[in-house]
Amino acid sequence: MPIHYLIAVTGTPLPALTYQSDETLSPGVRVLVPIGTRVQVGLVLGLAEQTEASTYQIKAIIRVLDLQPVWTQSELALLDWCARYYHAPWGRVLETALPPKLRQSKPTKRPLKALTTPPLGTAQLVELNSEQAHCLTAIAASLGQFTAWLLQGVTGSGKTEVYAALIAQVLQKQQQALLLVPEIGLTGQMVARLTQRLGTTPVLLHSELTDNQRAQVWQLTQQGSPLLLIGTRSAIFAPLPNLGIIIVDEEHDNAYKQQDSIRYHARDIALMRAKYQHCPVVLGSATPSLETLANVAAGKYQQLALTQRANTQSLPSIQTIDMRQQALAGALSPQLIKAIAQTLDDGEQVLLFLNRRGYAPVLMCHDCGYTVDCPACEVPYTFHRHAPNLRCHHCGKVEHAPKACPHCGAQNWHLVGQGTQKVEETLSMHFPHTPVLRIDRDSSQGKDKLPQLLEQVRSGAARLILGTQMLAKGHDFAGIALVGIIDVDAALFARDFRALEKLAQLVVQVSGRTGRGDKAGRVLLQTHQPQHPFVQSLLKQSYSEIAQDLLKERAETHLPPFGHSAWLLAEGKDLHKVQQQLEQLTQQVTTAEIDIAGPMPAIMHKRQGYYRELLWLQAEKRNVLHSVIHQLQTALAQPNGLLSGVRVFLDIDPQDMP
Ligand code: ADP
Ligand code: ZN
């Protein structure tokens, strides 16, 4: 008699379905199944209830694809948690978790060449200082069981050396270690250092790998042999049957949050994964997220601190430059220009930070005030130095700048605001003998381009460096004596309730790039709001103190991490319908235990021709939020529940307002 199996099917927005087979199949094995008129890859989740006289015909599994399960039972349990927590059907969870090659129903022409496990050599660790040694002892004592750790170490305190020592112990126990990093382009230095310390080559998993390479890495890690896997966000789904530790470096980084499809947070999944696989998870950061600090306060995470820089250099001092009534050279004040000149004269490096790429954020007619907007998004195009000059930073549309104003015909354009390209120009004017190294998304495109740019900073070849937040992330640059933050004012007035938290993280992280060598560093912060209380706290308080104040405010205003939130976004070409969709949904909600705001316009109210409206949901109890979302999704799944021409997206624990 055939056995009934519960199968998750890729390429479908469906929950798990029942299929039958005569073979005995282990959970976690991939199979081919018929669905509709197609054949898709499915994943065996387990046995389905064996119904005798079935009212519908149960289809047969066509073929078994794996000899060995892709994931173990506890890894499958984690994916099941993802499906429930993010309210996503199993089919979509697989779409997110499985690499493309493993989802293909057509067999690969040539079998993939198997990677061999990098051999384990002898670790050559540095001698840890007493703070580091304390952290190591504490975390190492928790190997083999679930414990969540926050390793809060100031910039340059040597967190990476603690990671290395922990990973060495895990490898020695013949187990696997997972190290998550925000962006692979920024981790070359870390990989090199870990390779050297551990005496083995880490295995890398990130978006720059080809589909084949990714599948090969999966085949390797699935074997369970001891290794260190370093990867970006999606590596949290890699099979690691022998997992001994998870480390999430720069845990506050937004790159861990997926911004489309299933909007999962790799850090949050890391916590659950450690729970399911009985190992410690270490969240490392100089500037932990308020979510993580709240979990420490609630006693869920254990906190460890590294308060000293490994080179015993003190943290850089931050000073403001009052921009009011200054004669500005572009975006730069005379004081900043003077400080740059001095630092360059001393033979040291300068790092300037501006979080706006392009030349200028607005192209405006000087005669009539007309701005050139992206027609699909109804926001100004960003002007770029190279043609086509107009680029929409929201939808990516590019266009040639008009010669004459389409409104009044004048040929008198005015560029409003400053992006990195404009500041680069200003710098070149003031420092004609010092080349400017610009590092932003535009200048770092292309394979290996970013590592090359970073190497110029590290080697000291580049003296005058200008960049966006890419520069804020975890780099260990030895020679930077001056950091200039060109503009903090926009963040002070942003609508996003996380803006100040992010600003504090950014300022501390960017500042942390200086004073890493043998000299103390200096940070200058340009603002028109030198008396603003938050600017004052940036100068006078530590990140921890600032974070505690922000937490108090969040508690008073009942915003995350206090309470639990989600948003639902409806998109469509017909604004009225979009609003109607959300209104219909709010009428479904009967409990008073949840606050629902909206429908309200999303921050990007129109994008690529679609209007976007938002419901913000906030509840004190997590289960209330989740049951309301379940209710709303059930309503959407009814016939006529979803209005035609409208799409609805969900974000649980959102990090950004859409
Ligand atoms: P973080 O990740 O906390 O910013 P890093 O791990 O990059 O700090 O350490 C900063 C620098 O100090 C690195 O060059 C590192 O090799 C060095 N360092 C850290 N700990 C030690 C130690 N115990 N002995 C010698 N050098 C150390
Ligand atoms: Zn656009």
Q: What is the rounded Rg?
A: 27 Å
| CATH-assigned homologous superfamily of the largest domain | P-loop containing nucleotide triphosphate hydrolases
Strand content: 15-25%
Q: Going across the major beta sheet, what is the strand order? A: 8-9-7-10-11-6-12
Shape: globular
Q: What structural class should be given to the helix and strand makeup?
A: alpha/beta
Largest sheet: number of strands, sense, barrel closure: 7 strands, parallel
CATH architecture of the largest domain: 3-Layer(aba) Sandwich
Overall mean pLDDT stands at: 93
Q: What is the CATH topology descriptor of the largest domain?
A: Rossmann fold
Cofactors and ligands: adenosine-5'-diphosphate, zinc ion
Task: Please tally the helical runs, counting DSSP H or I stretches of 4 or more residues.
Answer: 18
Helix content: 25-40%
Low-confidence stretches: none
Q: Briefly, what CATH class of the largest domain?
A: Alpha Beta
The oligomerization state is single chain
